[in-house]
Specification:
- The protein has about 325 residues and is α/β, with parallel strands linked by helices.
- The chain has 2 domains: about 180 residues, Rossmann fold; about 110 residues, Rossmann fold (3-Layer(aba) Sandwich), CATH 3.40.50.460.
- Helix content is about 45%, strand content about 20%.
- It is built from 11 helices and 11 strands.
- The strands form 2 sheets. The protein has a 7-stranded mixed β-sheet with strand order 3-2-1-4-5-10-11, sandwiched between helices. A 4-stranded parallel β-sheet has the order 7-8-6-9, with helices on both faces.
- Helix 1 packs parallel to helix 9, helix 5 packs across helix 6 and helix 7 packs across helix 8.
- The protein is elongated, with a radius of gyration of 22 Å.
- About 50% of the residues are buried.
- Bound molecules: 6-O-phosphono-beta-D-fructofuranose (F6P).
Length: about 325
């Protein structure tokens, strides 16, 4: 039996390209004669019945916009059984036969609850700048975030070399070193600290001192949010080496901005695939792309720890310094 109505929501930290995914979901569903309800503020909106029917025109001119037109939130209430019951009631009363949920780990955990515990068909679309979802090479927004960090590092390099200074740049990623590693490699940083790898501060001080003796004065050290506070690392560098250090915390600028072509294309492919899966009767899957081919995994697998290529990529930062 063909489905007639689905819903789409974005949840957790927003990511550039989420809008392109919403657009793809709405337009492909409409093309397939399926109605789409937009849910506002993620699981919060589901609980509070904050829904709106979306059509072709509701998603015009959003493919190039960062953020999410559906807004997003991290819902405490949805973590409770009561909250989930309310959400399920809203889903049933609105005749919603399946959901496309765009977000990261927390979003997928909610989707697992809905699908496994309450039997609501759910398809996850990976939308997070952290690139920490399994079963996909890349998550929507991660390419844009890395490019934003890179642009900042390039600018920092100009002043770092001109004034012969050391900079510690803190990038986002509480549990994931993806942005740090990618922007350090792409930006030619001398050092990078990741939550996934042991980082030997003493080694770094030693290298700075030795480099200084050779006449190397400017350094860029990239630190992932989850690997330590940039201020603390900067202070220790000064304490040990006696050199002046400046700190830049890039923060939420990395979450905004115009999505790159890669993120828009990924979002479009995955949004369409998610609707297709619901039409085929799938109910607890996550979509992704591996080696440029669409890849479907169980939601449970998608939230398992994604290994980033620490060994080779991390070493590369040092080799090419
Ligand atoms: O969306 C992921 C992320 O940006 C992480 O990299 C970061 O640690 C976290 O969200 C920050 O969350 P918030 O916006 O709630 O401060």
């Amino acid at each position: 039996m063909s489905i007639k109505k689905i819903a789409v929501l974005t949840s957790g930290g927003d990511a550039p390209g989420m809008n392109a995914a919403i657009r793809a979901v709405v337009r492909f569903a409409e093309h397939s004669k399926i109605q789409v309800m937009g849910v506002f503020r993620g699981y919060e909106g589901l609980i509070q019945e904050d829904l709106k029917l979306l059509n072709h025109r509701s998603v015009s001119n959003i493919i190039n916009r960062g953020g999410t037109i559906l807004k997003t939130a991290r819902s405490e209430e949805f973590l409770t059984e009561d909250g989930q019951k309310k959400a399920v009631k809203v889903i049933k009363e609105n005749n919603i036969e399946g959901l496309v949920l765009i977000g990261g780990n927390g979003t997928y955990r909610g989707a697992i609850e809905l699908s496994k515990r309450w039997n609501i068909p759910c398809i996850g679309v990976p939308g997070t700048i952290d690139n920490d979802i399994n079963g996909t090479d890349s998550t929507i927004g991660s390419d844009t975030a890395v490019n934003t960090a890179l642009e900042a590092i390039d600018k920092i390099r100009d002043t770092a070399t001109s004034m012969e200074r050391i900079f510690v740049v803190e990038v986002m990623g509480r549990d994931s070193g993806f942005i740090a590693l990618s922007s350090a490699l792409g930006g030619g940083a001398e050092e990078v600290a990741l939550p996934e790898a042991e980082f030997d501060l003493d080694d770094m001080y030693q290298e700075i001192v030795e480099g200084n003796i050779r006449g190397k004065i400017s350094w860029i050290v990239v630190v992932a949010e989850g690997a330590g506070k940039a201020q603390d690392i900067a202070k220790k560098i000064t304490d040990v080496t006696g050199l002046e250090v400046r700190v830049v915390v890039l923060g939420h600028v990395q979450r905004g901005g115009i999505p790159t072509a890669r993120d828009r294309i990924l979002a479009t492919r995955l949004g369409v695939k998610a609707v297709e899966l619901l039409m085929q009767g799938e109910g607890s899957k996550a979509v992704g792309v591996i080696s440029n081919e669409i890849n479907i995994v169980d939601l449970e697998f998608a939230i398992t720890k994604k290994e980033i290529n620490i060994e080779s990529l991390y070493k590369l930062v040092k080799i090419v310094t």
